[in-house]
Amino acid sequence: MIFRRLGGALLSLMLLAAPVAAQVSVLDQAQDNVGVAPPPPPPVCGTQPLAIARMSWPSAALLAEIHARILAAQFGCEIKVIPGDLAATGSSMGSTGQPAVAPEMWINRIAELWNPAIEAQMVRPAAPSYAEANFEGWFIPDYVAGAHPELASAAALAAALPTLNGGTKVRFVSCPPDWACALINRNLVRAYGLGNLVEIVEPANRFEMDTLIGEAVSRQEAIVFYYWQPNAVLAQFGFRPLDMGPYNEANAKCLASLSCPSPAPSAFAPETVVTALAEWVFTDIPTIAGYFQRSSLPLAEMNGLLAQLNLPGATIEGVADRFVSERGDIWRQWVGNDAP
């Protein structure tokens, strides 16, 4: 009986002591961990080099090099810039998720590759490559715009043209006759009632087109001309875009047809040009995805970069370095508050 009572007392003492021992163990572990740094956060760009496609045309190549420099400097990313091609890059991203980034993807032109890749959740657009969606239009020189502030749109040409060139026809520099834009421009001239007011000039090639525009500007000639962006010519000289009005799909279809009996005005068709990311960028390295979602560049800025590229001795890499050095007012908005 006595032993039974002693055993019960000992058991009670052991049960009472157990929480105390546990507390002491926890305290010992806490003391052992004092001064031990927490594990580092996962790398912002992941553990593998981030591949960016550098397409063959200058604007896309510049974007690739600019983003490579900013991501390396601001986020500490290891970047691999690789050669790219619109169709080949779109196909590779859709099947393998590589490269991770294509900064200037004209997705309307590879819809048969892009749409299945979207459906398979292999790629996703981060943001428009450029702040504007209309890449084609009509332009007038700054000196004409300054003398005629009322001339802000294509619709205003019919009233303004008779006063521009002493009553004689004003030259309208279009594009080469075998380009689709030549037919559209001819029909637009009819749509705006300009047939008796302009002389349509269709140069033989791109070089002659630029020469005609440059020579007219050097003479301070009042001209109207067609052009597209991004392009160095629009930054090398002072030009003002004319408001082409809203895009009308039915009107635009007629304007692009040889048989368009009653053409009506429309803006040129907008293009969807995006920074394309592999889907895993959004899920695995969301900070970098956020950067690209803020990275739309104004077309006028790219026009200026392309003009710099035309200077003697200029290179893609050198122009990209200069942009990063001088235009922090633009790219710091892309970085935001996400940089480590």
3D architecture notes:
- Helix content is 47%, strand content 15%.
- It has 15 helices and 10 strands.
- A 5-stranded mixed β-sheet has the order 7-6-8-5-9, with helices on both faces. Strands 3-10-4 form a 3-stranded antiparallel β-sheet, sandwiched between helices. A two-stranded parallel sheet has the order 1-2.
- It is elongated and about 85 Å long.
- The protein starts with a helix and ends in a 5-residue tail after the last helix.
- Keywords: Signal.
- Pfam families: OpuAC (PF04069).
- Residues 1-22 form the signal peptide.
- This is ABC-type glycine betaine transport system substrate-binding domain-containing protein.
Kindly summarize this structure in a few lines.
By secondary structure, the protein is α/β, with parallel strands linked by helices. Helices cover 47% and strands 15% of the residues. The chain has helices at residues 2-33, 58-75, 86-96, 111-119, 142-147, 157-160, 180-191, 206-218, 233-236, 249-255, 279-284, 286-293, 299-309, 316-326, 328-335, and strands at residues 50-54, 79-83, 101-106, 123-128, 136-141, 170-173, 198-201, 223-228, 239-241, 273-278.
Overall pLDDT, averaged? 90
Rounded to an integer, what's the Rg over CA atoms?
31 Å
Instruction: Work out the helicity level.
Output: 40-55%
Count of DSSP strands? 10
Q: pLDDT below 50 for ≥5 consecutive residues: which ranges?
A: 1-28
